[in-house]
Design goal:
The complex is a heterodimer of chains A (about 325) and B (about 280). Chain A is mainly α. Chain A contains 13 helices and no strands. In chain A, helix 9 crosses helix 11. The longest helix of chain A has about 40 residues. Chain A is globular and about 85 Å long. The two termini of chain A are about 15 Å apart. With about 280 residues, chain B is mainly alpha-helical. Helices cover about 75% and strands about 0% of the residues of chain B. Classes of the chains: A mainly alpha (about 325), B mainly alpha (about 280). At the A-B interface, helix 1, helix 6, helix 7, helix 11 and helix 12 of A face helix 4, helix 5, helix 9 and helix 11 of B.
Chain lengths: ~325, ~280
């Protein structure tokens, strides 16, 4: 287990290096001079030049890259152009709603998506299967921002069940109240995610149901329900867990859209605002944190996977 | 005689079952393409013309989908929006297909390229594609061509991964070995002996990629980091309608339905193609 753990963590290092490289070079090809952006358009050219020198923007690109990597490791992530606070601090204060939305969405999508997928597979090619799968294609075809607006209109404005805008932290209004604020964005995001998990569960379940050992189990005289839900389901769910992990990245992207529609000050909105404001240190930091979260979650999933199924080898 | 019609009926049923989704999805898509081409004759109004006397009109015979906060005819804007959405969908698919095929084939054929390439692709997939597309769009600036590049680059890795995994297994096939023994060049082997066999999963992936490209473009335009507001796009129309959603829900409903119908028809077409081209995947 320890060997597996170290191997898995080491294999994440090149991925993170690539991530850092992509972010660095993306931000360097951005048009516009960061020094000019800090000082404003009408700044004295001499002052701009001095700031460029102190920021190290005149050094060769490779030197800048090494320094950037060093800064990441020493925790010196720079300050936001927008509010001059350390970028990391800005992220920490915005983390709570995003984490709530993610957890809530994953919960919703697993609780609904997996059973729908199983029903589809078990009742394959029936009317029920066709209608469930049609609804899930629909789920994947509706833009998240549109679902968000429709939910805000119906459940928020007409029914008045949930607040339509903003977010209040747990420390202020308590956990349940905070949940009400993230309910609509999570539902909007969840609708799409349910669809993708249902489709995926259905296809893995069908794969397993068609395999030899299931036929053997049936031939032995085991009850069909036991074969389906004990023998088949266990093996069908393993790939679904990985699928959920890989989906985290697209959920984080969707959270950006949802948080913007519902005006929730989460990390996704921070990313969006920073991109629009051209607040590059902040963009760099958010994207890096998101990528790290993604990599860490996927390591954890692999470990859980390994713990559940000792046959799995790391390749 | 009677028996024959019975058989024909049965055959018709089989065809419908097998190709039904392709027919439905394809028909809607073709209809949308016709709408896009003949937009000027379908739309009664100039999509950009402001009409201060007819602001926020409810849908009526004159304005089928009502008018927006500036009095522009929403139906005309939606009709013109079809052009951008389909253009982005097709162009992004083409771009990501070309880039993805080249990358994927190189990675699948040369082990050394694969080592580096896979790491890069893993790195790219650690970013939410939405966020990456947004950043790229902001870096490149607004414009249809730039949005196409931004979304195209972001959707390349998934195409490359599919081509790579196909190429990896085809590389070991006997017909490739015999081509090698006959002295065929790498270039020839890659493009005439490997690529054609990668086609079915590729076509499936490109169709679903087209659907998601249209969704991504709509989201970017909705967020205002996409195509400039002067060009009518579905995302842009919705973005302007956002503030009126509670008082004038029709402004949000119809343009949204346009996106859903388009993406849905492409997805259904993709599902149909998958069932026909790759019967193993169910």
């Amino acid at each position: 287990m320890l060997k597996f753990l170290t191997k898995r963590i080491i294999s994440a290092i090149p991925v993170l290096m690539i991530v850092v490289m992509i972010i660095f070079f993306l931000m360097r090809v951005v048009p516009g001079d960061p020094a000019l952006m800090i000082l404003g358009k009408d700044a004295d050219p001499g002052a701009v030049e001095r700031l460029r020198e102190t920021m190290g923007l005149n050094d060769p690109l490779l030197v800048q890259f090494v320094r950037y990597v060093k800064d990441i490791f020493t925790g010196n992530w720079g300050d936001s152009f927008y509010n001059s606070l350390p970028v990391f601090q800005n992220i920490v204060t915005r983390l709570e709603p995003t984490v709530l939305i993610m957890v809530f969405t994953v919960l919703i999508s697993v609780v609904f998506g997996v059973p729908i997928g199983i029903i589809g597979a078990v009742r394959r090619n029936s009317i029920l299967d066709y209608s469930l799968m049609t609804v899930s294609v629909l789920g994947l075809s509706i833009p998240i921002f549109w679902t968000s607006m429709m939910l805000a209109f119906y459940l928020g404005a007409i029914k008045g069940w949930f607040p339509v805008i903003g977010y209040k932290p747990i420390a202020e209004v308590g956990f349940l109240q905070s949940l009400r604020y993230v309910a609509l964005p999570s539902l909007a995001l969840g609708f799409q995610s349910i669809a993708s998990i249902a489709r995926y569960t259905r296809s893995t379940m069908l794969d397993v149901l068609g395999s030899d050992y299931i036929r053997t189990a049936r031939a032995k005289g085991l009850k069909i329900g036991k074969v389906r839900y004990k023998h088949a389901l266990k093996n069908a769910l393993a790939p679904v867990v990985t699928h959920v992990g890989i989906n985290i990245a697209s959920l984080l992207g969707g959270a950006t859209v949802c948080e913007t529609v519902f005006n929730i000050n989460g990390m996704g909105k921070l990313a969006y605002d920073s991109i629009v404001r051209r607040d590059y240190p902040q963009v760099q930091a958010v994207v890096l944190v998101v990528a790290i979260i993604y990599v860490v979650i996927n390591i954890l999933i692999d470990i859980a996977y390994k713990a559940l199924d000792p046959r799995i080898e790391l390749n | 005689m009677e028996q024959k019609t019975g058989k024909q009926h049965k055959r018709f049923g089989v065809i419908l079952r097998r190709y039904g989704r392709i027919i439905i999805g394809g028909t809607v898509l073709v209809a949308l393409i016709i709408v896009a081409i003949s937009a000027p004759s379908i739309a009664k109004f100039d999509p950009l013309k402001l009409d201060p006397y007819n602001v926020k009109c409810y849908p009526n015979a004159e304005h089928l989908m009502g008018t927006d906060g500036f009095g522009r005819d929403i139906f005309s804007r939606v009709v013109y929006g079809t052009r951008i959405s389909l253009l982005v969908g097709v162009a992004v698919s083409a771009l990501s297909a070309v880039l993805g095929i080249i990358l994927g084939l190189l990675m699948g054929y040369y082990k050394k390229v694969d080592m580096v390439g896979m790491r890069i692709l893993e790195g790219v997939s650690a970013f939410p594609s939405m966020l990456l597309a947004m950043t790229l769009a902001a870096v490149l600036g607004s414009g249809v061509d730039k949005i196409i590049i931004a979304i195209g680059v972001v959707s390349t890795p998934s195409v490359a991964k599919i081509v790579r995994s196909q190429a990896l297994s085809i590389r070991e096939a006997e017909h490739v070995e015999s081509a090698k023994a006959m002295g065929a060049s790498d270039f020839r082997i890659i493009f005439t002996h490997i690529l054609p066999l990668c086609m079915s999963p590729l076509i499936i992936r490109i169709t679903s990629g087209m659907a998601s490209a249209i969704l991504t473009e709509a989201s970017l335009s909705f967020l205002g980091v996409g195509i400039s507001p002067n060009i009518p796009t579905w995302g842009g129309v919705l973005s302007e309608a956002k503030q009126f959603v509670i008082a004038y829900p029709f402004m949000v409903v119809y343009p949204g339905l346009a996106i859903i119908v388009t993406v849905l028809s492409i997805s259904i077409l993709g599902d149909g193609l998958r069932d026909v081209l790759d019967p193993k995947l169910k």
